[in-house]
Amino acid sequence: MSDADAAVGPLREAVAVALDEDLGVLGDLTSQAIIPEAAIGTGHFVARQQGVLAGTQAVDEVYRQLDPAVTVTWRLQDGDPVAAGHELGRVFGGMRSILSGERTALNFLCHLAGVATLTRAFVQAAGGGVRVLDTRKTLPGLRALEKAAVRAGGGHNHRASLSDALLIKDNHLVALGIEKSVQAASDRWPGRTVEVECERPEQVAEAVEVGAGIVMLDNMTPAQVKKCVSLVRKSSRPGVLVEVSGRVTLETVAAYAAAGPDLISTSAITQSAPALDLGLDVEGEG
Questions:
Q1: Which domain holds residue 63?
Q2: Looking at the DSSP assignment, which residues form a beta bridge with residue 131?
Q3: What pLDDT, on the 0 to 100 scale, is given for residue 175?
Q4: What is the pTM of this model?
Q5: Using CA atoms, how far apart are residues 6 and 243, in angstroms rounded to an integer?
Q6: How confident is the model at residue 284 (pLDDT cuts 50, 70, 90)?
Q7: Is residue 147 annotated as part of the catalytic site, yes or no?
Q8: Is 187 a catalytic residue?
Q9: CB-based contact 256:122 (threshold 8 Å)
Q10: What percentage of residues in the chain have a pLDDT greater than 90?
Q11: Total of domains in the chain
């Protein structure tokens, strides 16, 4: 199953909830009162600022659920750069439907384009030698959509749910410690890579020694990361990946990337992404 196929269900559900929330019981009272039922129009999606496009499938789904007679066409695709003033796409059909779906469509488009735009900034700042990953710190119900936006921005996805991968964090280690926790995880889920969150170099050394496939360096400085990367590379177990998490900002990501990890994960690209300023300019036919 492709990433796009996996997102279809969550996309439909998210759009349905959003439309129900915005339309209420009686629908768009203003458009019903002012716009003739037979009126046809065209809406132009326009960028007010530069960034990266994402969320076009959400817009398609908004109008598909609202009025299947409405058509949406795009001049650009998710992942394409956009410049202020550029037209991104058009929506054509009943004016009432276009206006009724405007806010829901733009809410998705602006938010997801904002995620893609900030992700692209992190990826460019980090350079080409490291992968930038998201986290599970996403808006409830929008995880699949936000992770798709991260990919559009050139980033990569960490686990989408707790069922996807084994990540032993500090609160897990309270129970058994690193060695027994890694052994228990490997016994319960043989063949799966086990990742261990580490806060100190000695934890990194232990995690690698007992079989962790990935070590996550949590809240370390770039200098500490460099030391731990060297420790992992010199170990007797080749292929262990090093991930950096915590303290990663747009200003610090280059320094962390220069320290030599394989992966850098940050919640900022989903949790703190500002919406991209996009609008819908509508005109009536005749």
A1: 3-123+273-284
A2: 263
A3: 80
A4: 0.94
A5: 26
A6: confident
A7: no
A8: no
A9: no
A10: 93
A11: 2
Q: Using CB atoms within 10 A of its CB, is residue 214 exposed (0-12), middle (13-18) or buried (19+)?
A: buried
Same domain, 188 and 262: yes
Tell me if residue 197 is catalytic. yes
Catalytic-labelled residue, pool 169, 180, 200, 233: 169
Q: Is 158 exposed, middle or buried (0-12, 13-18, 19+ CB in 10 A)?
A: buried
* 117 and 132, same domain (yes or no): no
pLDDT of 42 higher than 50 = yes
Per-residue pLDDT tens over the stretch 187-198? 999 999 999 999
Residue 209 is among the residues annotated as catalytic for this protein = no
Whether 18 and 98 map to the same domain: the answer is yes
Verify that 53 and 139 share a domain, yes or no.
Answer: no
The one-character DSSP state at 156 is: B
pLDDT of residue 1: 43
- Catalytic residue from among 64, 103, 226, 247: 103
Same domain membership, residue 47 and residue 119 = yes
Round to whole Å and give the CA distance between 198 and 100: 50
Q: Is-catalytic flag, 87? A: no
Q: Among 67, 199, 218, 262, which one carries the catalytic annotation?
A: 218
Same domain, residue pair 135 and 16: no
Contact 91, 154 (CB under 8 A): no
Of 102, 146, 195, 197, the active-site residue reads: 197
CATH number at residue 162: 3.20.20.70
Assess whether 62 and 114 both reside in one domain. Answer: yes
What is the pLDDT at residue 100? 98
